[in-house]
Amino acid sequence: MGILEVQNVNKRFGGLQALDNVNLDVEEGSIHAIIGPNGAGKSTLLNCFVGRLVPDTGTVMFNGNSLLGIKPHEINQLGVSRVFQTPEIFTDLSVLENVMIATFAHRDGAFKLNAIDPVRKEVDIRDHAEATLLDVGLQDKRNMVASSMSRGDKRRLEMAMCLSQDPKLLLLDEPTAGMARADTNRTIDLLKELAEKRKLTKVIIEHDMHVVFSLAQKISVLAQGHVIVEDTPENIKGHPKVREAYLGEAQV
Ligand SMILES: Nc1ncnc2c1ncn2[C@@H]1O[C@H](COP(=O)(O)OP(=O)(O)OP(=O)(O)O)[C@@H](O)[C@H]1O
């Protein structure tokens, strides 16, 4: 049994079947990629894991708990954390303060900007945040104001904010979107390092096949809301069904 088990999930938006009987089995400690052409249903599926959307039918089980019908912060407290395509950070605060706020939010269940004054005084939270910044290589930038960081560093900061909550499952929505190749490669290295350092399961949505094939142990291919193949990267490469799904995009 996987740490994340998705069974027979369906989701319609009006006349559109965005998810069509989706099944997914994510093994604990693995990096599992979800790929597929534009509009295949990848983000819709991820949204069903974090309480942003509720499937019409089906089940989503994480570590023995159903993720359906509970609030996003409750899902977060069960150990599921998500890195968004556009970093969700407090731009006026320092790098360290952003991570401290995320650590605090996980412990106390509230993500509030005005919590920063009491949080600044909490030594345990500061130590934990400093250790997380070291893990993602941002320790030298801890006092920088978040708004002045590069795009790549902002995404790294958001990853630190997620990691500071000690998640069991990290969901990454196109973690390298819009990055230059050098930044993309740094992100790949970081995710590989984290896989070695922490026993953390990762589900990653990604269009960049260089990233997918560098990281994933298992790949699920979505097309028109349906998982057409779930297999290892070796078997996915050149798979006729996958080529067909990408016809015209020619990425795999
Ligand atoms: N809230 C919504 N209301 C109506 N239709 C939606 C909604 N969200 C998504 N859709 C539609 O559902 C389908 C799947 O969208 P989704 O964003 O999940 O695809 P995706 O695979 O993540 O695409 P991309 O790679 O372009 O981000 C698309 O046709 C999209 O237009």
From TrEMBL:
Question: Which segments constitute the ABC transporter domain?
Answer: 4-249
Q: Does the keyword Chaperone apply?
A: no
Asked whether the keyword Amino-acid biosynthesis is assigned, the reply is no
Sorted alphabetically, the Gene Ontology cellular component annotations on this record are: plasma membrane
Q: Which UniProt keywords apply?
A: ATP-binding, Nucleotide-binding, Transport
Q: Which CDD domains does this entry report, sorted A to Z? A: ABC_Mj1267_LivG_branched
Q: Which positions make up the signal peptide? A: none
Domain of life the protein comes from = Bacteria
A GO molecular function assigned to this protein is: ATP binding
Alphabetized PANTHER family for the sequence = CONSERVED COMPONENT OF ABC TRANSPORTER FOR NATURAL AMINO ACIDS-RELATED
Q: What is this protein called?
A: ATP-binding cassette domain-containing protein
Q: Which organism is it from?
A: Oceanomicrobium pacificus
